[in-house]
């Protein structure tokens, strides 16, 4: 804060104003995230080179082995291995088609083998939700289809909310202000 104040020659009041603006922006971004929705699946996986290794892991799981432990010790996907293979909530478009199809159609809590160009995955779908809201703005922002999800779910929600408040008299739009002209906070999808 002190560095920013010195660097910008800002007064303490200006620094507080800047913080207030940033706080309001954060609130708006969280409102966007929580009112933007997409079909999502929560899955975990263990990635190996060949089908024999995948079959062996599947057999171990069926015998009671711990998925997270096997992911940590056997998966080639080092990024998810440290989280027990957990991929978090994923939307359509996040993964290659074969993997995406699997996480949106396989039965829940039943590990199965899926082959992709990356190798063989032992996949377990933990949960699936249609039109699930995003937990945070960052979770939304990093999605390839963020602009599409925003346009299809947030914009209609916002427009309906705005109409309700305008009709009730609780909201009046200033002359010359077009809320639809505001830029969206991530690239639009083609």
Structure description:
Keywords: Isomerase, Rotamase. It comes from Chloroflexus aggregans. One of its GO terms (molecular function) is peptidyl-prolyl cis-trans isomerase activity. This is Peptidylprolyl isomerase. With 190 residues, the protein is an alpha+beta fold. The protein folds into two domains: 82 residues, no CATH class; 97 residues, Chitinase A, domain 3 (Roll). It has eight helices and four strands. Strands 2-1-4-3 form a four-stranded antiparallel beta sheet, sandwiched between helices. Strand 3 and strand 4 form a beta hairpin. The chain is elongated. The mean pLDDT is 88.
- Alpha-beta content class: alpha+beta
In which order are the strands of the major sheet placed?
Answer: 2-1-4-3
CATH fold assignment of the largest domain: Chitinase A, domain 3
Name the poorly predicted regions.
none
- As a whole number of angstroms, the C-alpha radius of gyration is 23 Å
The DSSP helix count reads: 8
Amino- and carboxy-terminal Cα gap: 39 Å
What is the CATH architecture descriptor of the largest domain?
A: Roll
Number of strands: 4
| Series of H and E elements | HHEHHHEHEEHH
Helix content: 40-55%
Q: Major beta sheet, specifics?
A: 4 strands, antiparallel
User: Tell me, what is the CATH class of the largest domain?
Assistant: Alpha Beta
- Average pLDDT over all residues: 88
Shape assignment:
elongated
Number of domains: 2
Per DSSP, what share of the residues sits in E-state strands of 2 or more residues?
15-25%
